[in-house]
Amino acid sequence: MSPWSKSLSLSGRRILAACVRQHYSLTTELIQNMDKKATWDRFYTENSSRTPTFKNFEWFFGFNSVQDIIMPLIQTLSRPDALLRVLDMGCGTSALGPSIYRHSPLPVCVTCADISPVAVRLMQEHIRAKAIQPHNPSSQLEFLELDCMHLDKHFGLSSVDIIVDKGTTDALLRSREGKGKAGLVLKQCLKVLRGSGSLLQFSDEDPDARLLWLETEAQDPGVMRADVGVQEVGELRGVCYYCYQVTPQPVVSK
Q1: DSSP string spanning 195-232?
Q2: 27, 78, 122, 151: which one has the fewest Cβ atoms less than 10 Å from its Cβ?
Q3: Alpha helix positions (H), the chain
């Protein structure tokens, strides 16, 4: 078995184990179809029906585990003349995007986007009920139903400063028909990111597999290229997590 196949297999079991711990019915068959909207509509519908009150569902970990990576990056990208645009891609019902909105001292426009209208509706209702306030009064927060393979239909080219991907690419790569879609999503991210911006992928994928995939998919001679780096986030329940940072670079014309 190749390192790539082994890594995907282990990660799939970790996702299934996490859902079993939370008493959700995400079976192996559903895991293989995590690239499909119907899967997530079913997941969030069943999830919300099991508890009388709303509870955020966090893949991998919550905001506290990664704020020391995200918040300093926001500081370095600050622009005095405009809001920083932050996209939480495949947000589900995570508190990650709202936490950035709540904690950023700099003005940010945070878009939490997901393919599932069920997840988007649940988050909109939750935020309205909680009346969450931003750290900076100029900050904005929105929730959007959006297929991440078509980011450029909503965002202009080179218009987003930071894209946060906590498990979205992992879900695609581990789906039966999702690997090609994961590559398209990465290319969409590079299209809508500013030249100074970054994509942060949080994953439990081993660097020997993920770095190779990112470096291959992020290069399109004459069209796009990107630098790829990695840092360790830490260990949780015996699993090591990483942050892969992808930064678009100017294309050199020959």
Answers
A1: EEEEEEEEE-S-HHHHHHHHHHHT-BTTTBEEEEEEEE
A2: 27
A3: 3-21, 28-31, 37-49, 63-76, 96-103, 117-130, 168-173, 179-192, 207-217
Separation between Cα atoms, residue 220 and residue 33, nearest integer Å? 28
Q: Please choose, from the candidates 166, 168, 70, 80, the residue with its C-alpha nearest in 3D space to the C-alpha of residue 116.
A: 168
Q: CB-based burial of residue 238 (10 Å sphere; 0-12 exposed, 13-18 middle, 19+ buried)?
A: exposed
Q: What are phi and psi of 147, to 5 degrees?
A: -80, 120
Is residue 244 within 8 Å of 211, Cβ to Cβ?
Answer: yes
Residue range 40-94, pLDDT digits in tens: 999 899 888 888 889 999 989 999 999 999 999 999 998 878 899 999 999 999 9
- pTM (2 decimals)? 0.88
Average pLDDT over residues 92-106: 97
Would you say residue 13 has pLDDT above 50?
no
Tokens of 117: 């209208």
For tokens 């997840």, name the residue. Answer: 119
Where along the chain do its domains lie?
A: 63-249
Is residue 242 a contact partner of residue 210, using CB atoms and an 8 Å limit?
Answer: yes
In one-letter notation, the amino acid at residue 151 is L
Closest CA to 86 of 99, 173, 94: 99
Joined tokens for residue 183: 């590559």
At the fourth CATH level, the homologous superfamily of domain 63-249 is Vaccinia Virus protein VP39 (3.40.50.150)
The residue with tokens 């909680």 is 130
Cα 48 from Cα 149, distance rounded (Å): 26
